Amino acid sequence: MALRLYDTKTAQLRDFQPIKPGQVSLYYCGATVQGRPHVGHVRSAVAFDLLIRWLEASGHDVLSVRNVTDIDDKILEKSQASYAEGFEPTADYPAEEPWFALAYRFEQAFHEAYDALGVRRPRYEPRATGHITEMFALIQRLIEAGHAYRAADDSGDVYFDVRSWPKYGELTRQSVDDMQDAPDADPRGKRDSRDFALWKGHKDGDPETASWDSPWGRGRPGWHLECSAMSTKYLGETFDIHGGGLDLRFPHHENELAQSAAAGDGFANFWLHNGMVTYEGEKMSKSIGNTISPEEMLQQARPKAVRYFLGQAHYRSQLDYKPGALQEAEAAVERIESFISRALPESFSLVPQQHIPEGFRAAMDDDLNVPAALAVLHETVRAGNTAIDAGDKSAAEQRGLEAATMMSILGLLDVPEPDLSSGPAASALETLVQAQLDKRAEAKSAKDFGTADAIRDQLNAAGVVIEDTPQGASWSLKGDA
RNA sequence: GGUGGGGUGGCCGAGUGGCGAGGCAGCGGCCUGCAAAGCCGUAUACGCGGGUUCGAUUCCCGUCCCCACCUCCA
Question: Which protein residue has its CA closest to C1' of B38?
């Protein structure tokens, strides 16, 4: 059975076949680095990380690209505001910060958030400002093809001519005439209010560093253009998959498609969009302010649990966050991990492709049905625990390898966790806890259960969980499997 | 107004024309000195009203409600 993916453009599940057998070219939209990442950003990154991992587990080489949009209106506005009189600096927005410094700083914040959740870096991560000449070339092609024009006023803007491209709206199946009129206060030199800027002429007050000489005068690129320019540069004029958040479908992806297709590029064969993250039913967004940061989540739960939470719903579904959700995820992750550590010897080598259960493969091949795949994982854990209880070591180990494989494919083995098992503090703790356990063992063998239980309660209160096994007592820290 | 996605047991969340995924929480049991972990069992779930059908949560029609997008959005 082959991989099927839901393509937003055709609104249906389609068999996925890469253009080049064995290699998949994937572009997915990263962030406009104008602020700290919120959960929606990392959900999207986790979703596409999952896709990449599954493609790889299925034997593909994945050429992945994720953009950094490091210039746009918001970045400039925020930088500009930091110079204004009466500006009150905060930890996230210091005073007098140039736009490029602000963008660079938040780009790093995104990296930290991705890294913390085991989202692997894409093969290439190009910045918009590094591809101005590629954008020139694209604009030039559009002008020559009659799909872009210089603004009628003296703004120096260049617009995409929506009416010149009959397919405009094909991605979201909308017709230009049915679109709600943009409340465009400043139509400037546009022919149609839906026309969008490819190039924005330099305005007084904009920093000189945020403008480039172009054939149409000094200025800066419009939003959308960078993704068309960069995706085709790194992946070719036709590539396999273009992804991003559902909210980017319109206008961002619609415009990308229009400008690339109108310039004569084949562009993406598949369009994938992940669902939004909501907070108790409402979309999390900067403008509403109901966001939860990845940092806040990481304070509440282990990184693995956070990743599990973000990946557990189907990627196209809305993912609702509510208090307590992370604790549930933590319980599920710990159940799986404690099984794997019971079933497998200290060190084991994993050859993923040898241990993928058929049900898991079928679920993932079905448009990355992670919830169904997780059901297989949990069933494997139960079967493995049963085998352990029955003393069937080889069956337990087999289930253990399968469970570890699935965890690996889901990216849950790569999530960095604080290492509590080495270092001087760890060995001091080990010595102290072991001394208590020895005392408890003595008390137990003397049938002095009062003392034994007191020791256990005391350790428990300190966050050390005791488990008695036939081989003696073992301990672990709460929240650390 | 246009476009798209939804309403599933206490919560989360898949899925299917007829054997009630999975997780979390709960309850009962096994195990345990007692626990923990693990295992077994346990829920009269599919917004509402019609229709098609031997049979619908699943298909069709109607209806109510929710969410997203329509030029800041992952």
Answer: A385
Q: Domains (ranges, CATH) in chain A? A: 17-274 (3.40.50.620), 296-409 (1.20.120.640), 424-477 (no CATH)
Q: Partners of A358 in the beta sheet?
A: none
Distance A288 CA to B1 C1' (A): 25
Find the nucleotide nearest A332 (Cα to C1′).
Answer: B23
Segment A465-474, tens digit of pLDDT:
888 887 788 8
Nucleotide B4's nearest residue (CA vs C1') is: A172
Q: Three-state DSSP class for A200? A: strand
| Cβ partners under 8 Å of residue A472, min gap 6 | A437, A441
User: Could you tell me the distance in Å between the CA of residue A369 and the C1' of nucleotide B46?
Assistant: 20
ipTM metric: 0.94
Spacing of A270 CA from B33 C1' in Å = 63
pLDDT tens-digit readout, A211-227? 999 999 999 999 999 99
- Does the CA dihedral A177-A179-A180-A184 come out positive or negative? negative
- DSSP code string of A294-337: HHHHHHHS-HHHHHHHHHHS-TTS-EEE-TTHHHHHHHHHHHHH
